[in-house]
Amino acid sequence: MDYGYINARMRGMKSRLLSRSDLEDLITKPDLESLIAGLENSPYKADIIEAKGQLEGILCIEYALRENFTRTFRKIQNFAKQEEAEQYIVIFLRRWDVQNIKTILRGKNIHVTSEEIAGCLVPAGEMDKATLQELLKQPDVRSVIDLLATFKIRYARCLTQAYPEFTTTKDLGVLECALDRFYYTDALESVKAGGYNNQIIRDFLRLEVDVTNIKTVLRMVRDHVDPADAKRYLITGGKEFDERKLDHMLSLATIEEVVRYLAATPYRFLTGIPESVVRTQKISVIEKELERFLIKKGVGAFMKDPLSVASVIGYFWAKYNEITNIRIISRCKTADVSPDLLKEELVYV
């Protein structure tokens, strides 16, 4: 099996993703019931039919999306056995393990029911549904971490090491940062060898680290966290921002100053955000623009060498974006958001 075959499969799967006109047709649906009917006439048909037998409304859509997402990436994992391609697939899928652990920890920390937490999980990573169900049965944060250690799951050690600080601060961000730091450090270590494919993967991971750090800096500056304390929440290994630059951003007094500093970097597009948004410190708007940037960079990998891991990266991000867009549409339908405002929330690539 070679990259020519993998690239052909990826492009074939990409051609079956929803087009802009498909998404805009879904936007025009007047309610969730008609949205579900629209998805039943799409590549999500089988998943919607299965979900309708158990759930209704937005829960039906969320279930169908999770099942489709998980099955799609398992399919790719089964045929992309080229070493570097499989390596990136593992790296990409592990982010869902991290996200699922974060979701469970958040739920247990605020005593949300296991059923509610389960509805937010995406079992696309290495941890299967059975493992996630056992984690959901645990009564609190400590028990979740202990069970991860019992199961010898790779994320247990970093959480165990960070737990004493969490018990002191009661800040769940301590545990979430430990997970992110481990994930990116481990992923970058796995692609440290030379070669074009490793370089593509490494560059994209470092880009993600930069975006994650920018989001952290924005929150820390907004909340006036002491720079010395804020540094603990940053991740090393970024492409654009070394320790000196990150320290400088943390020392800035306002979100406006951070955005002005970023004007001299590849993140200069943030200066196009309305001044009123920046001045009122609506970080969610800035984070959304950073997410759009990351998605477009990811999907843009399709433009790189077709005989490389690039097509796998491109498809993963295109599929992730499609799922995200459908979720936005379904949630906006429940909130009765107008079609024009809804369109502004989507990322078209």
Compute the number of strand runs. 0
Order of helices and strands: HHHHHHHHHHHHHHHHHHH
Helicity level = 55-70%
- Through-space gap between termini: 29 Å
Short account of what is shown:
This protein has helices spanning 3-14, 20-27, 32-39, 45-52, 57-79, 83-109, 114-118, 129-136, 141-150, 156-169, 173-190, 196-222, 227-230, 243-251, 255-262, 275-279, 283-299, 310-334, 339-345. The chain is an all-alpha fold and 349 residues long.
Structural notes for this entry:
The chain is mainly alpha-helical and 349 residues long. The protein folds into 3 domains: 1-82 and 324-349, ATP synthase (C/AC39) subunit, domain 3 (Topoisomerase I, Chain A, domain 4); 88-190, V-type ATP synthase subunit C domain (V-type ATP synthase subunit C fold), CATH 1.20.1690; 194-308, V-type ATP synthase subunit C fold, CATH 1.20.1690. The protein is built from 19 helices and no strands. Helix 5 (57-79) runs antiparallel to helix 18, helix 12 (196-222) packs antiparallel against helix 17 (283-299) and helix 17 runs antiparallel to helix 18. The protein is globular, with a radius of gyration of 21 Å. The two termini are 29 Å apart.
Keywords:
V-type ATP synthase subunit C fold; 0% strand; globular; 349 residues; Topoisomerase I, Chain A, domain 4; mainly alpha
